[in-house]
Amino acid sequence: MRTSIMSRSVIAVASIAIGSAALTASPASAAASEVTRAEVLGVAAAVRADSPTSAPGGYSAGTMQAIKALAGRACLIEQHPGQVVYGVQAAATEAGQGADGLVVRANIRNGEGSVYACSFAAVATVAGSSILSGSVQLGPAPVSTALSGEVTVTPPVYGDYSSSAFPTLQAAGQSVQTVKVVTSKKVSTPKSAKQKKYAKNKYTKRIKAAKKAYAKALKKAGHSKTKKRSAKKSYSKKRAVARASYKKSIATSKIVRKTTVTTSSSPFNLTATTKP
Prior knowledge:
Elements: E1 16-18, E2 21-23, H1 37-50, H2 61-74, E3 84-92, E4 99-109, E5 115-125, E6 130-139, E7 143-146, E8 151-153, E9 157-160, E10 168-188, H3 193-221, H4 225-250, E11 253-273
Antiparallel strand pairs: 1-2, 3-4, 4-5, 5-8, 5-9, 6-7, 6-10, 10-11
């Protein structure tokens, strides 16, 4: 299933001059690459597993690569050729709630060699077929973003590499899961002698009409094998439909299917803080 990503509407929080290069916020119409629920859950789990005491050296190569890939999309790097994520600091929320997530500060080098910082937070539902509600705040400003869909990525916040504060995440809300359950039950439908006789007569008339139409079609077909095959196919179909209808009419039971929709909510209160 595709996700709802808040990073598609980028909020400009600063214009930064770094050396001779000026960094401005991406336009509101810019769209980041899709970030999936599975990616957010996977990166958050990897960050927790590594539990680095210092960044970026404390991450394993696989975790570092995963964080950089996520940061590249969340920070809209694909819209700026020549820029690259070369360092990251990340912190994951505590596991065991209805949602999971992480906050990331990425250090990005542009094509001229200057460096700037990009911060963002990402929150995803733990259970599949769930929808987020609530809000997430990317600190320390803070910038608040409404939670929706299976995964929400906040708009990126850009800042000066040397003076930007390390970001925090605070999110509260619910993960709402909707489950459809289909049950089948056999129900008795007794038929009277009169009903059975009526069904039999109706079946007989339909078969008689089908045979008559078949004989007429064969006569009209002449020596054409193609037309004869078509006539036989049509007759076989009409006969099958008549038999199925008759069988259903005299059946003394039927299967009744019922769909039940259940909704469950899992509240969450998430926090995470990156460290220099």
